[in-house]
Design a protein that fits this description.
This protein is of the alpha/beta class. It has helices spanning 5-8, 15-26, 41-54, 72-80, 88-100, 149-170, 189-196, 200-203, 228-246, 258-269, 283-289, 307-314, 318-324, 329-343, 390-408, and strands spanning 2-3, 36-37, 57-61, 84-86, 115-117, 121-123, 132-137, 140-145, 176-184, 207-213, 216-226, 250-253, 273-277, 298-303, 347-353, 368-375, 378-385. The protein folds into three domains: 2-170, MoaB/Mog-like domain (Molybdenum Cofactor Biosythetic Enzyme, Chain A), CATH 3.40.980; 176-253, Alpha-Beta Plaits (2-Layer Sandwich), CATH 3.30.70; 258-408, Alpha-Beta Complex (Maf protein), CATH 3.90.950.20.
């Protein structure tokens, strides 16, 4: 549970929930629901009460500060029928913290952070003034952690996870929830489902999730509540089996970036690359240069947004632009050739299109993009019509451009 009106209003991004999900899942905790509530006593009480009825075990972040809107501790103490008392040792530690940091005497308002529900275990927080609390009674557990991400993370790692692992050991050993993510691009979610759907029963007990984005579709295999060795075995065999079905659409795992995959390929082939971009406005070059070590293969690029730049910097013939237009196969091929020539590279990428929201025609509607890839003088050009907003069309164009270059080096590619 994450507590804070600022989270509900979107003023603060709820990174705690995502981090808790990953960490608790890796420790073998099956999370059944995630809830965000405002800084209101009734909302907090209702959510904690309902969560305890579902599972008997709740972890909450936020609402432990010294101000009036920090009311989580009092609400949970009331639910357990526990009174708050002033922990003198905790108060002295708080006062010492203020003195150590040179902030002068501790404000009186901070005294309530030294108040603890009867019977609660204090989880020391060396990174902040609000300690964590572990409240357990009659088989019910509520863990309260500060909402500040660095403080929450420290307490989670140092205080909470070790206690959870110890409880699991008592209950018959540690079980984990682990995942393996395979990344694909250039194929739709529905087409992937047709391709790998028949495997889903064979992959059991692993679950398979499809995670689409403008860059492609990630496939996430998850092993639920099994011992670590079994989870690793299941994910290794299931992932390898799935990878065979994905074919050329697969380009990496977990957080792998397509640009990094492309750079690794170019390095292994001793190739260099330049870019010529129109509608993407430098996005392809930016994605390549975001990868450490890109200078080994990336030489430079031209953003030829205006036709005069295409002519003067990239050498696109005037007759090509006049007869076929800037958004055409002929222009894309000429842009790629020009980039390779200007920067003296063995490879080049070119992108030109209509990103919208205006500028489209019946022949070339918004989303029409021509892409060209040159490798050692041999050019491949393709036309795509991308859906979405201007931002999404540009992002899809950049992803597809990088993917076209990657595919040029795959075994069996027609141009090889």
């Amino acid at each position: 549970m994450t507590i804070g009106t600022e989270l509900l209003l979107g003023h603060t991004i709820d990174t705690n929930a995502a981090e808790l999900g990953r960490a608790l899942g890796a420790a073998g905790v099956e999370i059944v629901r995630r809830t965000t509530v405002p800084d209101r006593p009734k909302a907090i009480a209702d959510a904690v009460r309902a969560a305890l009825e579902r599972t008997g075990f709740v972890l909450a972040t936020g609402g432990l500060g010294p101000t009036k809107d920090d009311m989580t501790k009092k609400v949970v103490a009331d639910l357990f029928g526990k009174a708050l008392y002033l922990d003198e040792g905790l108060l002295k530690a708080l006062e010492a913290r203020f003195k150590r940091l040179g902030r002068g005497p501790m404000p009186a308002i901070n005294r309530n952070q030294a108040e603890v529900p009867e019977g609660a275990t204090v989880l020391p927080n060396p990174r902040g003034s609000a300690p964590g609390l572990w409240i357990e009674d009659a088989g019910r557990v509520v863990i309260l952690l500060p909402g500040v991400p660095s403080e929450m993370r420290g307490l989670l790692i140092e205080e909470v996870l070790p206690r959870i692992v110890a409880r699991q050991a008592k209950d018959g050993g540690t079980r984990v929830v682990r995942s393996r993510t395979l990344r694909t691009t250039g194929v739709s979610e529905s087409a992937l489902a047709e391709r790998v759907g028949p495997l889903e029963e064979a992959l059991a007990p692993l679950s398979l999730a499809y995670l689409p984005s403008v860059e492609g579709v990630d496939l996430r295999l998850t092993a639920w509540s099994v011992v670590p060795e079994e989870a690793d075995r299941l994910l290794a065999s299931g992932g390898d089996r799935l990878k065979k079905e994905l074919g050329d659409h697969y380009y990496g795992e977990e957080e792998t970036l397509l640009a990094a995959t492309v750079i690794d390929i170019l390095k292994s082939k001793s190739k260099t690359v330049a870019v010529a971009e129109s509608c993407t406005g430098g996005m392809v070059g930016a994605r390549l240069t975001a990868i450490p070590g890109a200078s080994a293969v990336f030489v430079g690029g031209v953003v030829g947004y205006d036709d005069n730049v295409k002519r003067e910097q990239l050498g696109v013939p005037s007759e090509v632009l006049e007869q076929h237009g800037a958004v055409s196969e002929e222009s894309a091929r000429a842009m790629a050739a020009g980039a390779a020539r200007v920067f003296k590279t063995s490879c080049a990428i070119a992108v030109t299109g209509v990103a919208g929201p205006g500028g489209g025609t019946p022949e070339k509607p918004v989303g029409t993009v021509w892409l060209a890839v040159l490798v050692d003088g041999n050019t491949t050009a393709v036309k795509r019509t991308f859906p979405g907003s201007r931002e999404e069309i540009r992002a899809r164009s950049a992803q597809t451009a990088l993917d076209l270059l990657r595919r040029r080096f795959l075994p069996g590619h027609p141009s090889r």
